[in-house]
Structure formats: structure tokens, C-alpha cells
């Protein structure tokens, strides 16, 4: 479910990053699926756990020059000691994200990256049953999925302004349930801002489904 809130209600937003220690197999042996990453991130906010508060923490895994990084967007600053648990020493950092988000202007062109879970919902809710979801399979279907959602998310795309960089299925285990595999697609390209407030909301709250499991985080940077 998308969250439609004016981002200005949020006093502060943080962007955090840590390089995952992929060469230390003993350290990362627990990171076998998306649920394990989710638990890592949730535990990095001990004050929220203590107060019984569950806030949305957007996150994703990026690979740059054969190094893996965990990125987290959150309303509260994470405990960097806990966030460093599976990371390389001295690579964990956090910064205020709000000033950059607030600087976004209508008509601005920005380079973007989005990791998302493009799916199709089928079937109406009947007798309390949930809708069924099916992953979009082809590249055209996945690109069309994003184009259809872009304007509501505050930006405009053309078919030739972005591309799919990666596509895969990743495992998710829930205790007591059969494991499932989620479709994960990485989009990159150039977007045009048409509604700064809507885009700010998207940067903070994400786009699409399975946000708790590494999907939905959109990041943007100036072209120049």
C-alpha cells in the first residue's frame, strides 16, 4: 500500500549506508534470505523496538565495483553499532537526507535507481480472501509497470529514458511457512520531476510492494 503523506510532516529523514563484509563468510552466514536482512535492519532501531513503534524502513542492496552496500532510509537515526553487524569496519555512515529531498524542484531532471517488485494483482477480495499477485515476467511488462506508476509517484518517464539493469528472483523465508521467491528488478535512468511533494513522499516511503524486504527504494541524484 502506498502512503500519501506530505513529507513536511516528518521532522527529519536519514540515509544510511554500510558495506557488507561479503568476504567474511562466517560473519554473514545468517544473511541467507530477505527476511534475514529485514531482521538486521529492524534490530538497528532499538529505541523503536523498546517503545513498541513500527516505522517504515526502506532499504536495498546495491553492488558497486564488486562491493555490496546496504542502503537504509529512515525517519530515525539507526544505531550504527548494530547496523555495522554484518559490515566492514569503519564503512557505516548516516547523514540527514531531508535537505536534499527538500531541494528537489518541478521540471528538474534527475538520474535515478529503483529496485522494485513489479507485480500484477488479480481477483477481487471475496469472503475475506486476499488478492493474488503475479510477477511481471517480460522486460516490456516490467517497464510498463513503472511508467504507469510514475506520475502518481511525482515524476515522468518515457520508454527510452530508463532501462532495466538487473532482474532476478530472491528467496524469502517466513517462520512456519513455505519459502517464496520474490521478483526483484533494478531500474536506472533519467526522470523528470512533475510533482516535488509526491516525489519526496516516494523517496521516503517507497514505490510498490514488499518494501519491508528490500523493494521500493528510489534514489535520485542530479545529472550534473
TrEMBL record:
Task: Name the InterPro entries for this protein.
Answer: CRISPR-assoc_prot_Cse3
Which Pfam families does the entry mention?
CRISPR_assoc
Q: Which SUPFAM superfamilies match?
A: CRISPR-associated protein (SSF117987)
Domain of life of the organism encoding this protein: Bacteria
Q: What's the protein here called?
A: Type I-E CRISPR-associated protein Cas6/Cse3/CasE
Its source organism is Limosilactobacillus fermentum (strain NBRC 3956 / LMG 18251) (Lactobacillus fermentum)
Print the organism lineage. Bacteria, Bacillati, Bacillota, Bacilli, Lactobacillales
Amino acid at each position: 500500500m502506498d502512503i500519501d503523506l506530505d513529507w513536511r510532516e516528518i521532522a527529519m529523514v536519514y540515509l544510511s549506508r554500510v558495506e557488507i563484509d561479503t568476504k567474511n563468510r562466517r560473519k554473514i552466514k545468517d544473511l541467507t534470505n530477505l527476511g534475514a536482512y529485514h531482521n538486521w535492519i529492524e534490530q538497528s532501531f532499538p529505541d523503536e523496538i523498546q517503545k513498541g513503534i513500527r516505522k517504515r524502513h526502506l532499504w536495498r542492496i546495491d553492488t558497486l565495483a564488486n562491493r555490496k552496500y546496504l542502503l537504509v532510509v529512515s525517519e530515525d537515526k539507526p544505531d550504527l553499532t548494530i547496523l555495522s553487524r554484518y559490515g566492514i569496519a569503519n564503512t557505516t555512515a548516516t547523514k540527514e537526507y531531508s535537505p536534499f529531498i527538500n531541494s528537489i524542484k518541478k521540471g528538474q531532471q534527475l538520474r535515478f535507481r529503483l529496485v522494485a517488485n513489479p507485480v500484477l494483482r488479480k481477483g477481487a477480495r471475496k469472503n475475506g480472501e486476499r488478492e493474488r499477485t503475479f510477477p511481471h515476467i517480460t522486460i516490456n511488462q516490467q517497464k510498463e509497470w513503472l511508467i504507469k506508476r510514475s506520475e502518481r509517484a511525482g515524476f515522468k518517464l518515457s520508454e527510452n529514458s530508463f532501462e532495466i539493469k538487473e532482474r532476478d528472483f530472491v528467496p524469502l523465508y517466513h517462520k512456519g511457512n513455505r519459502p517464496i521467491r520474490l521478483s526483484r528488478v533494478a531500474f536506472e535512468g533519467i526522470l523528470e520531476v512533475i510533482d516535488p511533494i509526491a516525489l519526496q513522499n516516494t523517496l521516503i516511503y517507497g514505490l510498490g510492494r514488499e518494501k519491508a524486504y528490500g523493494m521500493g527504494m528510489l534514489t535520485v541524484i542530479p545529472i550534473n
